[in-house]
């Protein structure tokens, strides 16, 4: 079961979930659906979101979705000079995309934890060696696919994959004042364990964003 309570069929690293998006109507025994999305607008029909491993040929679609997210939500705060490079940083253990049909509508990276601002503090809160952490990174969902549970399923996929590796997930997220989705992680049971100022910020110190470190619920499958 996905974290948002929907049931999905899994196999071969792929999870498919049928979701009734806002504006659609699903009733037992029959299905009444409004028209699908126009470009740039939310889906308004019953859609099937697919979570699967990211491929190299997904990167153009990831960049296109990221550009829409950045324009609407300012994530990332500064558009990267090399967006493909930004989507392929060091320390990646796994990567997934969420698709609807042939369109990439979201993605997430699982990294080795070396990117965490306060890695030692997070490891201490988890009572694990730092090498037993994994980090969720570069998570985004296109606005037109929100309300389908895509973000929660991407996170659930990463947490499970980290657990299979004997690691526990953590992440850095901007404070809500800077648009960080802290409420999403707290709703999914993640715990805030540390707070700092963003070391990567190159603007004025007065504008330096606040970053929170969150720790996922413990689902590791091996003893610490």
TrEMBL record:
Keyword set includes Transferase: yes
Organism domain of life: Bacteria
Pfam families: Acetyltransf_7
PROSITE patterns: GNAT
InterPro entries reported in the protein's UniProt record: Acyl_CoA_acyltransferase, Bact_Acetyltransf, GNAT_dom
Any one GO molecular function term: acyltransferase activity, transferring groups other than amino-acyl groups
Keywords of this entry: Acyltransferase, Transferase
Residue span(s) of domain N-acetyltransferase: 49-217
CDD domains: NAT_SF
Protein name from the UniProt record: N-acetyltransferase domain-containing protein
Organism: Actinocatenispora thailandica
